[in-house]
C-alpha cells in the first residue's frame, strides 16, 4: 500500500494522474484520486506536460504504473497482429530487478523497463486482475470499473477475442500468452548481448554518418539486418527505417563484394549509402534533406554535400590508380579508408 511507503524516510512517493479527458467519467476519477492521495499523505500532481517532464522535474528514480498480467497478454496479441518484432511482443515486460531499501531494511523487487530514458516500474505485472481485485476487496482499497469503450480495439479484444480464444483453446491460453511475452523478452536480451551489440559496438560514428565492416555478418539472415539497421537508423542517426527490399539488395551485394569501386545502394530517397568491399557506409540524411531554413542556407548545404561527394569520388579514383601503380589489387583493397572520407577533417 502507498501509505506504507510514505512512512519510510528513504522513499518519497509522488502520485501523478494524467487525465486525457476522453471519457465522461475521467474528471470524476481524477478528483477521487486526488482526494485519496490526500488521505494517504501522498503528494499529488495533475499535469498536462506528460510523464517525461514530470520525471525530470521531480528527479524521480522511476515511475510506477499499474499494468497487470492481463495488459501484458493483450499486448502480445495486439503486437502479433500488427507485425511487431518477435523480440518485443510483450512491449513492457522487462525482468530487470530494481531494489528499494525500505525503513524496515527489507527489499522490494519490481519489474522495470526504460522508455525514452525514463525508468518505468510495474510491480503488479505478474499478477492477474482477479488477484488484484481480491486484494482490494480484502483490504478495502477502492477502485474504478473498466470503462474501456466496447467499440475500441482494446475493448473488442477484451470482450470478444480473448473469451473466444479461451473457449477454443481453454483457460490456459492466458498463461501461454504470458509465457510468450517472457520468452520474447529473454530472446531479446540474449540476441542483443551476443549478436546485435557486437555489431553496434563496431559501428564507427562521425558527424557525417556511420560506417561498419559487415564481413563477420555476411551469412546472417534478413531478420538480423532488419533489427541491426533499425537500431542504427532510429537510435544512432535518428532517421526513419530502411525498407526490406533494399536491405535484401545489400545482403546480396555483401555476398558478392566488389573491391575495385564503390557500390551505390540507393536504399531510400535522400539516403546516400554505399558499399566498399564489405564496409557499409551511410551518410546522415540531415546533410542532404531539405530543412526549414532560408533558401540560401539550403543551397549552401546542398553545395557542401555535392562537393563532399565529388571529393569522395576523386579520392577513390586517385587512390585506386595509385594502388595499381604500386603493386596491384591487393594494395588497392586497403587504399581507400572509408573512415577518412567520413571524418570532418576532409
Automatic annotation (TrEMBL):
The chain crosses the membrane at residues 303-324. Residues 57-149 form the tRNA(Ile)-lysidine/2-thiocytidine synthase N-terminal domain. Signal peptide: none annotated. One of its GO terms (biological process) is tRNA processing. Its EC number is 6.3.4.19. It catalyses: cytidine(34) in tRNA(Ile2) + L-lysine + ATP = lysidine(34) in tRNA(Ile2) + AMP + diphosphate + H(+). It is an enzyme of class 6 (ligase). The keyword ATP-binding applies. Keywords: ATP-binding, Ligase, Membrane, Nucleotide-binding, Transmembrane, Transmembrane helix, tRNA processing. It holds the Pfam family ATP_bind_3. The keyword tRNA processing applies. InterPro entries: Rossmann-like_a/b/a_fold (IPR014729), TilS/TtcA_N (IPR011063), tRNA_Ile_lys_synt (IPR012094), tRNA_Ile_lys_synt_N (IPR012795). GO terms for molecular function: ATP binding; tRNA(Ile)-lysidine synthase activity. This is tRNA(Ile)-lysidine synthetase. It comes from Zophobas morio.
